[in-house]
Amino acid sequence: MAHVRSLAAATPAGAPVVNTSGSPAAEAETSFPSVHAERDAETAELFAALAAAPDGRSRAVALERIVLLYLDLCGSMASRYDGRGIEHDDLVQVARLALVKAIDRYVPGQGPSFAAFAVPTISGELKRHFRDRGWMVRPPRRLQEMRVQVQSCRNRLEQEVGHTPTDADVARELGVTRAAVKEAVAASSSFHPTSLDASTTDDESGSVAYLLGDDDESLARVEDRVCLSAALSGLDADERQLLALRYVDELTQREIGVQLGMSQMQVSRALRRLVAHLRVALADDPTTGRRRLGQAS
Fold it and tell me: Residue 122 and residue 93: Cα distance in Å, rounded?
């Protein structure tokens, strides 16, 4: 079985699959309706040979022939899911590995044919792959299921009415709210999130990245600034100038004294008095005020 899995994974997606008649299987299915019956008959013979195979080599040969017969079916089913966010070759590989699983689980005589058994198995594996790997940002399971229902309903209504149905039409048909339909449609963008480099205007002057918010350090200090502004409003012009020279211009006490005609000791005492006053004004309890303005002194 390991050899067959390697074969299914290694065969190029675009390579023609040759059946026993010597013509590509995909072309034969399109051109000759009887190819299904012929392939079913050959498949039955191969499964019989597989059951009677005496050793590993004989089983591997029979398994390989069954895989080759149905590789075109894998490609066809994978193509149904193209354009949904996953590369075609990846989908083909998933389908082929599902084919190997179907061969391993199939019991001859149960069901109309092996193809009828394999198709649901392959389809299920493809859907499971989309569910587990296809979302760049995975929405809740509820939205995933609703998205499928909305898309199916929209396609059906489009065929019936001859034009693209509105969200209201789809909501009415499914018996859900219009908001639920819009949410499901929006979930489709989780397959292909908008690039941060995408332009937000026709002239490409700006990108989505420029619209993203960022942490604003000054925002955390808005409350302090408002409270400090109120506290400073109670000081006279000389006191505000003294604080500005020390904490805005960052002058030393000696430099402030020279500029204001004061001694360094007078500047130090005035600053201590002003800081103590602001602590009380800014905090309901002195401990908080001391913690908030402890560095200022």
Answer: 11
C-alpha to C-alpha distance for 47 and 16, rounded to whole angstroms = 23
pLDDT tens-place string over residues 197-247: 766 665 556 676 676 767 777 777 787 788 878 888 888 888 888 888 888
The pTM score is 0.44
Return d(Cα 79, Cα 123) in angstroms, integer.
Answer: 11
Name the nearest CA neighbour of 50 among 120, 115, 104, 112: 104
Percent of the chain with pLDDT over 70: 73
| In the chain, alpha helices (H) | 2-10, 25-31, 35-52, 56-79, 88-105, 114-133, 141-161, 167-174, 178-187, 222-232, 237-247, 253-260, 264-282, 286-293
Q: For helices 237-247 and 253-260, give the axis angle rounded to 10 degrees.
A: 140
Q: What is the dihedral of CA 147, 153, 159, 164, to 10 degrees?
A: -60
Distance, CA of 257 to CA of 270 (rounded, Å):
11
DSSP state of 16: P
Of 60, 93, 87, residue with least CA distance to 74: 93
Half-sphere exposure of 124 (CA within 13 A, CB side): 9
Tokens of 226: 């408002």
How many Å apart are CA 153 and CA 170, to the nearest integer? 7
